[in-house]
Amino acid sequence: MDYINAFWIGGVICALVQILLDRTKLMPGRVMVLLVCSGAVLGALHIYQPFQDFAGAGASVPLTGFGNLLWKGVKEAVDKEGFIGIFMGGFKASAVGISAALVFSYLASLVFEPKMKK
Fold it and tell me: At the top level of its lineage, which domain of life is listed (predicted)?
């Protein structure tokens, strides 16, 4: 059942974003910022964690999950380090995921011969 919940919740999030892109004049970058900020705000309101517990990867993989991750990192760092935690918490919380994305994308570029657009 965990896989089914992850699949349909993630699908609903992606479908809502696609509708937002198709029906409004918002640029994709602004929609991505909206998703990250929404995840952070829902995390601050203690709404996102129960949602993520129910949906699993369906809620943690989209950009709303990244916003929630940044929020949790900042909150923990502020509790531990004080004011300076505002600046370092998000970096510490998301460093592994961002590093993995960079390493795997580099490995993929070695395997698949990327080409520049003309």
Answer: Bacteria
Q: What is the pLDDT of residues 16-52, one digit of tens each?
A: 999 999 999 999 899 999 999 999 999 999 999 999 9
Q: How many domains is the chain built from? A: 1
In a domain, 41, yes or no: yes
Residue 62 belongs to what H/E stretch?
none
Residue 117 lies in a domain: no
SS3 content of the chain, % helix, strand, coil (to 5): 85, 0, 15
- 24 assigned to some structural domain: yes
- Count Cβ atoms below 10 Å from residue 42 Cβ, excluding itself: 19
Instruction: Look up the domain containing 37 and give its range.
Output: 2-112
- Model confidence, pTM: 0.77
Q: Which two tokens stand for residue 90?
A: 């998000």
Residue 17 falls inside a structural domain: yes
Find, among 72, 69, 74, 76, the residue nearest to 97 by Cα: 69
